[in-house]
Amino acid sequence: MKASLRNFMSGLIDYAGLFPPAGLDVQTALANYAGYLEGEDGWMLGRCVVPAAQLHLAAPRRGFRFSVVVSPGVSREELDRLGAFTGRVEMVETRLADDAVSPEQVFDHLLQLKTLLGQAGLRDVQLFVETGNTAPAAAAIASFNGSGHGGEVIGSAGYKLRCGGLEKQAFPAPEKVAEVIGICRGHDIPLKFTAGMHHPLRIYSPESGGMEHGFINIFGAALLCWGCNLSIDETAQCLGDETARHFHFTEEGFSWKNNNISTSEIKKLRRSRAIGFGSCSFAEPVEGLRSLGFLDNAGA
After folding, report:
1. Is residue 298 scored above 70 in pLDDT?
2. Kindly report the CA angle at 267 between 263 and 271, in degrees rounded to 5?
3. Average pLDDT, the chain
4. What is the mean pLDDT of residues 180-203?
5. pLDDT tens per residue across span 196-213
6. Closest of 300, 249, 298, 255 to residue 4, by C-alpha
């Protein structure tokens, strides 16, 4: 397999089968996660995403890694579930409260989250926060990371961008996604994506009645924006490109049109900046890669 594809896709997909549109029960989702981990494509699988309120129903197994979703205020029930959970929690995801509109307010919320997660006994987790106020949130996250306020509890904080949903309006335009990538690059903070990326490349969805983002578009654009200083306009063009032959994986690196990034840089940025994406399906993204020939043509 080509080294750049391996580093591009390694651990990229966080399995969120409990969330819509799949909406599976905990036992079914965990059974699926276990099966995917053991399969030939398990190297592309990241964490299993579980709401904190349902952790008591999740029986962790060897090799399981979890991302836990908590409510903006983090309820006492959620803290109790987190504190009692014996699985490996690597990541926590949440929405910021609606009143967090300035960098100072976002920073205060991050401090509160650190205190609460510490009370639950969490250590060295990645925290990703979702909010529509990207610029002030990114500034606060950068300050929080730079000041070391996460202590032993939060290893790093990052921004989470929702890229889809059940309706057409839930899918942000390529220009909006490019803007968010550029803001996060400017503040040098980690970025995670979620929702609406079941396909490798941008495609029309009859279910939503609109265009859905492709995860190769998303992460290719993010990696090139960070590693090759792609402009925001070029980033948006990469996000909107529906042509498979414009994207290439080799031993040396990944390229989109005439823009190239090395395999070693991909590995570095995937680990520290372009982290992954949540998907309620693991099989669909993998089958999409095969149908376009990215896996079949990757070489042994």
Report:
1. no
2. 165
3. 95
4. 97
5. 899 999 999 888 888 999
6. 249
Inter-residue contact 213 to 236 (CB < 8 Å): no
Q: Would strands 247-249 and 253-256 be described as parallel, antiparallel, or unpaired?
A: antiparallel
Classify residue 10 by burial, with Cβ atoms within 10 Å: 0-12, 13-18, 19+. middle
What pLDDT, in 10s, does the model give residues 72-117?
989 999 999 999 999 999 999 999 988 889 999 999 999 999 999 9
Here the tokens at position 119 are 């009370």
Q: What is the strand order of the sheet 259-262 is part of?
A: 247-249, 253-256, 259-262
Place of tokens 């900046």: 273
Residues contacting 184, CB < 8 A, separation 6+: 138, 158, 159, 190, 191, 273
CA–CA dist 61, 178 (Å, integer):
38
State the pTM of this model.
0.96
SS (H, E, C) the chain: CCHHHHHHHCCCEEECCCCCCCCCCHHHHHHHHHHHHHCCCHHHEEEEEEEHHHHHHCCCCCCCCEEEEECCCCCHHHHHHHHHCCCCEEEEEEECCCCCCCHHHHHHHHHHHHHHHHHCCCCCEEEEEECCCHHHHHHHHHHHHHHCCCCCCEEEEEEEEECCCCCHHHCCCHHHHHHHHHHHHHHCCCEEEECCCCECCCEEECCCCEEECEHHHHHHHHHHHHHHCCCHHHHHHHHCCCCHHHEEECCCEEEECCEEEEHHHHHHHHHHCEEEEEECCCHHHHHHHHHCCCCCCCCC
Give 8-24 pLDDT, tens digit per residue. 999 999 999 999 999 99
CB pairs under 8 A, 24+ apart, for 113-116?
113/74, 113/154, 114/149, 114/150, 114/151, 114/153, 114/154, 116/74, 116/79
Contact predicate 294/200, CB 8 Å: yes
